[in-house]
């Protein structure tokens, strides 16, 4: 059980981050959820999670593209035992047409935010002699696709940063690993299905199999709760000696 532990999950008002927050709460951790927005429904989500699992859940707004806000998030939370760096965005374009501001935003949110939160969280973890850092990378942290230059560069960078964090904390009760999801069925991905069906003139099943899961040999989406379950495993005592590595949850994508 993660009772008495505090987890911060960046970018967690939807998708994989929310799945991680839910599974951490189910395992007994107190959780801080975060996103860039500050809407009543964000705070309501925290209350709902807290009530469902009998743990403390707070919503803290912070923009993960801003170094100061990344560091302040950790401080406002009062430090953390578990840090899940999950916030991420995507943009798809050829290199010579890739907008500079999109490149900068993807590098800031998908990569640099993890550096800032980790730097702010590590002193407290070292002091307690226990900590877990889980970076949500991607199959694109291990392989590439055309037109995703910034995303692939940031996710490869995040895998590298994961290894350095593991080396600097080895033997101190702190571990750092990256999860590399393949295609996960999040609301964002679900919303793309109707457009893809229209664009390819295919029914739902065919467009999922032939287009969206083209590179995922299982031909099945991974789920947000499977991602959350993998985070919880990495926080368990079974994973004490797992550090500096990647766990692919990708239906065989990177085995191809
Ligand atoms: P999502 O859009 O549902 O979640 C992204 C989260 O990040 C949201 O909560 C969003 O509000 C937040 N966010 C975006 N910009 C932010 C900012 N500046 N500051 C704070 N929060 C911000 O998408 P998702 O699919 O759940 O993605 C979560 C992570 O998983 C990302 O890092 C993504 O790259 C990674 N991932 C997703 C998939 C997939 O198939 N869905 C596959 C591999 C990796």
Layout of helices and strands, plus pairs?
Elements: E1 6-9, H1 15-26, E2 30-35, H2 40-53, E3 57-61, H3 67-76, E4 82-85, H4 100-128, E5 131-136, H5 149-169, E6 174-181, H6 187-200, H7 204-212, H8 224-235, E7 246-249
Helix pairs in contact: 1-2, 1-8, 3-4, 4-5, 6-7
Bound molecules: nicotinamide-adenine-dinucleotide (NAD).
How would you characterize this protein structure?
This protein has 2 domains: 213 residues, Rossmann fold (3-Layer(aba) Sandwich); 37 residues, no CATH class. The chain contains 8 helices and 7 strands. A 7-stranded parallel beta sheet has the order 3-2-1-4-5-6-7, with helices on both faces. It is globular, with a radius of gyration of 18 Å. The model has no long low-confidence stretch (mean pLDDT 97). 46% of the residues are buried. With 256 residues, it is an alpha/beta fold. Helix 1 packs parallel to helix 2, helix 1 packs across helix 8 and helix 3 packs parallel to helix 4. Helices cover 47% and strands 14% of the residues. Nicotinamide-adenine-dinucleotide binds next to helix 1, helix 4 and helix 6.
Number of helices: 8
Radius of gyration: 18 Å
- Uncertain regions: pLDDT < 50 for 5+ in a row? none
**CATH class descriptor of the largest domain:** Alpha Beta
CATH homologous superfamily heading of the largest domain: NAD(P)-binding Rossmann-like Domain
The largest pleated sheet is described as:
7 strands, parallel
For the largest beta sheet, what order do the strands appear in spatially? 3-2-1-4-5-6-7
Question: How widely separated are the two ends?
Answer: 36 Å
What would you say the CATH architecture of the largest domain is? 3-Layer(aba) Sandwich
Strand portion: 5-15%
List the ligand species. Answer: nicotinamide-adenine-dinucleotide
What's the total count of β strands?
Answer: 7
- N to C succession of SSEs: EHEHEHEHEHEHHHE
Structural class: alpha/beta
Mean pLDDT: 97
**CATH topology title of the largest domain:** Rossmann fold
How helix-rich are the residues, as a percent range?
Answer: 40-55%
Shape: globular
Total number of distinct structural domains: 2
């Amino acid at each position: 059980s993660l009772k008495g532990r505090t987890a911060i999950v960046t970018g967690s008002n939807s998708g994989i981050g929310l799945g991680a927050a839910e599974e951490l709460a189910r395992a007994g951790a107190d959780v801080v959820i975060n996103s860039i927005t500050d809407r009543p429904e964000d705070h309501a989500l925290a209350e709902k999670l807290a009530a469902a699992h009998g743990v403390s859940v707070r919503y803290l707004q912070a923009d993960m593209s801003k170094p100061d806000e990344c560091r302040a998030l950790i401080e406002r939370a009062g430090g953390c035992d578990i840090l899940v760096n999950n916030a991420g965005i995507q943009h798809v374009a050829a290199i010579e047409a890739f907008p500079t501001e999109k490149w900068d935003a993807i590098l800031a949110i998908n990569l640099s935010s993890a550096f800032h939160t980790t730097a702010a969280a590590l002193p407290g973890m070292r002091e307690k002699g226990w900590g877990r850092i889980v970076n949500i990378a991607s199959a694109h942290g291990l392989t590439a696709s055309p037109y995703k230059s910034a995303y692939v560069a940031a996710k490869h960078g995040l895998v590298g940063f994961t290894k350095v964090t593991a080396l600097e904390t080895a033997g101190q009760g702190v571990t750092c690993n990256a999860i590399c999801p393949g295609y996960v069925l999040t609301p964002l991905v679900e919303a793309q299905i109707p457009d893809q069906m229209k664009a390819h003139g295919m029914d739902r099943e065919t467009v999922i199999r032939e287009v969206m899961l083209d590179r995922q040999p299982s031909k099945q989406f991974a789920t947000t709760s499977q991602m959350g379950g993998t985070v919880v495993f990495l926080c368990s005592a079974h994973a004490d000696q797992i550090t500096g590595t990647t766990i692919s949850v990708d239906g065989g994508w990177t085995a191809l």
